[in-house]
Amino acid sequence: MIQFSQGNFLFELWMSRAALLDALSVTCSVALGGIAIGLVVGLFAALAAVFGPAWLRWSVGIFVYAARGVPALVTIFFVYYGVGVIWRALPAQSAGTLALGLYAAAQMTEIFRGALQSLPRGQIEAAKAIGLTFWLRIVDVVAPLSVRRALPSLVNTAVDLVKASTLVSALGAGDLLLTGQQIAARTFLIPEVYLTLWIFYLSINTTLTVLGRWLEDRFRNVIY
Amino acid sequence: MLGYELRWEALWPYQELIGHAFLVSVRLAVLSLLLGGVLGLVLAYASSSKIRLLRLATVAYVDAIRNTPLLLLVFIVYLVVPELGLPGLDADGTFVAALAMAASGVICENLRAAFASMPKGYLEAAMAVGLRAWQRQAYIVLPIALRYALPALTNSAVSVFKDTSLASIIAIKELTYAAREISTNTFRVFEAWIVIAVIYLIVTTAMAALSRMLERRLSKAM
Amino acid sequence: MSYIEGSCKVSEAHQPILTVKHLTKSFGPKAVLRDVSLELNAGEVLAVIGSSGSGKSTLLRCVNALEEYETGEIRLRGERLSYRGDGSKRRRLGDRQLAAERARIGMVFQSYNLFPHLTAQENVMLGLRRVRGMSRSRAVEVARQWLDRVGLGDRRTHYAHQLSGGQQQRVAIARAVALEPELILLDEVTSALDPELVGEVLGVIRDLARNGMTMMVVSHEMSFVRDVADRVAFMHGSRVLEVGSPAKIFDRPATAQLKTFVGRFRGISAKLSNEDAPAMDGAA
């Protein structure tokens, strides 16, 4: 059966606390950075895709198609090596964050675009009918309704991004997975370490998933 | 491109390598999808079982697996499972097992949603005609549910194919591994990665197109 | 100009509030409005009737600039709406000016279009605060008054999904009239309602009419039209064929098309006299 060297494991965990804290910060900054980039780029790309001129709509379409048709890992390597060749070598963590940001952006563009385009025309007409100008219509009607509709899907994408953050370990960036692996290899406490890693990722993602379900439920009557 | 010239000829000697790598990717994806699909179907039925323990266990498993990073799962299967006394798998087997598990979670959810959105009338009609439980499922419920689930299942299949790229991390010689190898050997970074990206795009586009064709043919019957 | 006190329905003589002149509109090859002209006087209820596809809703939507039109003009108290310039120099006004025009014209839609993320009260308050510039406390007060007026005072903190269709439509009416527009447009406002809910909405409209609200109403509820309208316009094939008092339109139709149209309701209307029995009427 499993030999849980409890005393040993907690000791090792404590000894490695500096490395683990660093690793945690790497994972968090990659995930949060990717989400932030994704939200900003995704929002603007969606607005461009819905309101922009034909060439812009077309470009966004190509971007989304390419970013979604290719594995996240390939995007990561592409950005890392590509930027390294045409500009200068990026640190693994930055390349990873940027690449995951593009990965998230593609998904979020589709989410925002869907939310904007499926807004019932009647809502906009009612807003016009009471005399609201363009920006007031956006602020008081279009934005509140689109955001509520997009929110549950955006939370799902956030979960995807936390899971994808483990891929930066392939570039050698010291995220939680890589650091955990190093600790496990060094201390031979393999099941304990991986179990701990698993519990960690599970906690974060389960919390997010629950949040997503709650949001979906809360906005059930507002979502069109 | 800022001092970088594209020289596609550098890739010529690697044709066979890429070809083999492509087949490896496809094999991994197909195996994972088949295993994951069957497991997902079983889970979908288990999740509506009358046995409370089974229901809860299934939901717990599906939620856990959907919230676990695939790479972590691969390593757990590779390194932790042998420690528990169970027979260890080689790299290929490990990866397929992990990917199949991940796929089963997603496919289970796809099928559950399809079952839920299917009009109850079909099942009632099947009962009224005198079909027995397994017949109702096999001849009526499943075929119809699969049609409802087709768009979601296609997405899952495309995701599975994209996820085979993770196999490169445990040194399985699939497409992403080939791209790394070529770019390190030839220093032709853009050419290598563009070619591999294009191959992925072709496959995912083809899968989506096939699925749309299938949807159109099936929707005529419904 | 408060509609809360009653005022007598005498039109302010000289100028009609709304004049529509020679309006034409096509959706691609299909002509939807052909040389349509109409007048609406202050305090008057003008009903527009006709079969589906005769252009009635489109006419309404042109008045508050939800639709564009190719030729013709619409004037509100003599001022030209939505466009300026003539012929090749004809230009549609900008969003800000159109918004200002729309604030003077209220509209109630067939599918209510209440904002789902706002309560009934907030729906009514939105225009008051953003367009009329009212303070929050004043807006709450005014919204409450109007919701009381349509009989929904106790539901003002409810959301659209918590209200029945008839209640939602009454909130929509309150939302439109709270801005004290010069006239309101009612686009088949009972057509989407379950029969038993139609009466409560018609009651509110009748009440507004009695208090002097200028209205242009597109409806299939013939007995209601007959009862409440001051004048009725009959549209057919994208044109206005006849205009007149309800008595003239329903009892003494001149054109063949109107005779056919009215004939469909004759047997039923005779039974109903002046009551609202919405379920029987107007399934055009």
Task: Describe this structure as you would to a colleague.
The complex is a heterotrimer of chains A (224), B (222) and C (284). By secondary structure, chain A is mainly α. Chain A has helices spanning 6-15, 17-51, 54-69, 72-86, 92-117, 121-129, 134-164, 176-187, 190-218. In chain B, helix 7 (175-186) packs antiparallel against helix 8 (189-219). Chain B has 222 residues and is mainly alpha-helical. Helices cover 77% and strands 0% of the residues of chain B. With 284 residues, chain C is α/β, with parallel strands linked by helices. The longest helix of chain C has 17 residues, at 256-272. Classes of the chains: A mainly alpha (224), B mainly alpha (222), C alpha/beta (284). Chains in contact: A-B, A-C. Chains A and B meet through helix 3, helix 4, helix 7, helix 8 and helix 9 of A and helix 2, helix 3, helix 7 and helix 8 of B.
CATH class of chain A: Mainly Alpha
Q: Give the overall pLDDT of chain B as a whole number.
A: 92
**Structural domains of chain B: how many:** 1
Q: So how many helices of chain A?
A: 9
Please provide the count of β strands of chain A: 0
Strand content of chain A: under 5%
Percent of sequence in beta strands of chain B: under 5%
Can you say what the CATH homologous superfamily of chain B is? Answer: MetI-like
CATH class of chain B: Mainly Alpha
* Helix/strand structural class of chain B: mainly alpha
- From the spread of the alpha carbons, the general shape of chain A counts as flat
Distance from N terminus to C terminus of chain A (CA atoms, Å) equals 53 Å
Identify the biggest protein-protein contact and residues per side: A-B, 42 and 40 residues
**SSE arrangement of chain A, N to C:** HHHHHHHHH
- What is the CATH topology of chain A? MetI-like fold
Annotated CATH homologous superfamily of chain A = MetI-like
In a few lines, what is going on in this structure?
With 224 residues, chain A is mainly alpha-helical. Chain A is 82% helix and 0% strand.
Features:
heterotrimer; B: 222 residues; mainly alpha; MetI-like fold; 8 helices; 77% helix; 0% strand; flat; C: 284 residues; alpha/beta; 4-stranded antiparallel sheet; 23% strand
